[in-house]
Amino acid sequence: MYKILKQSKISKARLGVLETPHGSLSAPFFMPDATRGVVKGVEGTSVQSAGVGAMVVNTLHLYLQPGMKVIKKAGGIHSFMNWNGPLLSDSGGFQVFSLLHNKSGMGKITDNGAIFKSPIDGSAHILTPESSIQIQFELGVDMMVCLDDCPPNDSSDKKLQAAVRRTLIWAERCKIEYEKQIKKRKIREDKRPKLFGVIQGGMSKDLRRECARGLTDIGFDGYGFGARPVDEQGNFLGEILKYTAELIPKDSLRFALGVGTPEDIVKCAQLGWDMFDCVIPTREGRHGRLFRWKRNPKLQIPNYKMPPGYKQAPNSKFQILNFYKTININNAKFKNSKLPINAESKLPELREYSLSYLHHLFKIKEPLGQRLATLNNLEFYLDLMQNIRQGIKNNSF
Which domains are assigned to the chain? Predict the structure, then answer.
């Protein structure tokens, strides 16, 4: 169940709570990617200590390795990865389509599903709407996503139209299979996983509207933004994200898949999106790039310039620009820095280890360095979400 607790008076931002079989989540919320059942280099207890409420696992990767027999024998993905919080699984489609886009000889997409070869051992597989849902039920996740056709935003009109048609057909098949699995497994209403449809259509408002209407007619717990939220140059697609959010029923969850950078999360939350996931904080951490607040240690974000058509409150505390910075710990200037990684962290290791020591760990390629940098970035993102929620509560966001 998703309940909206408060609607911002100055933007489309919403404060809500989502109840799942593995606990409640305050929205807007961010989910780090635990692609193969793990946030790379960081154990689950530390991820939880950083404040993470939910994570995203990858249906395709877990299906291929270790395989569903192993995960089922372990008692499901929660038991397998020793995580007691909510989990969301993607459909696996994005990864298959990316594989086929980069290597056309690896398979093909048909109306029935995607036929592909495993990048691990070359074995043949087919991913259909039905099998995608079946795999996600076997994982035992709290939230799952329908299989959709996700071409790049700049695809031809013909390709985008075909993708919307296929996405709607597949969504209906996913919903039918979902209901079959609920009945077959005798899952109670309060234990039912949430199911998300994905709105495709590229940069076409007409196609986005057509897709959204078709999906809402089928009926889902939430709806996601299909395809990348930025263009080929990395520019934020604010107009189409704003338009798509307004197509989604007000009482449904709005999932901005793949968003993203801190400033893009702020923008999307202002436009009414509730859920976010991205590899950025963990991937950047593994490369030695750390997110840090630019202002005071209370983590307040200064004045935010609203999108056109929205009102700006005089006491607004949120600003897209200049509220954070990134540092590269590999830089020589940190070699002798005695400053802690983060003096305000709730994690003792980030308060007690110095930037100099972290610099040293990266220079000798010690995995502990990647772990500490990843924890730093996760905590930054979660503090960002807390500030956004507080801003909505205080009518300053």
Answer: 2-279 (3.20.20.105)
Helix (H, G, I), strand (E, B) or coil at 180: helix
Do 245 and 265 meet the contact criterion of CB atoms below 8 Å apart?
no
Give the global pTM: 0.92
Q: Which residues lie across from 109 on neighbouring strands? A: 114
pLDDT of the residue at 102? 66
94 residue type, one letter: F
Contact (CB, 8 A) for 201 and 208: yes
Residue 331 pLDDT:
98
Active-site residue identified among 90, 148, 264, 383? 90
Q: Closest Cα partner for 378 from 268, 283, 274?
A: 283
- 262-297 pLDDT, tens digit per residue, is 989 999 999 999 999 999 999 999 999 999 988 653
Pairing of strands 124-127, 114-117: antiparallel
Predicted local confidence at residue 109, as pLDDT = 84
277 is catalytic: yes
Alpha helices, DSSP H, located in 50-92: 59-64, 68-74, 77-81
The widest CA-to-CA distance across the chain, in whole angstroms, is 62
Query: 142, 221, 277, 383: which is the annotated catalytic residue?
Result: 277
Please indicate whether residue 251 is annotated as part of the active site. no
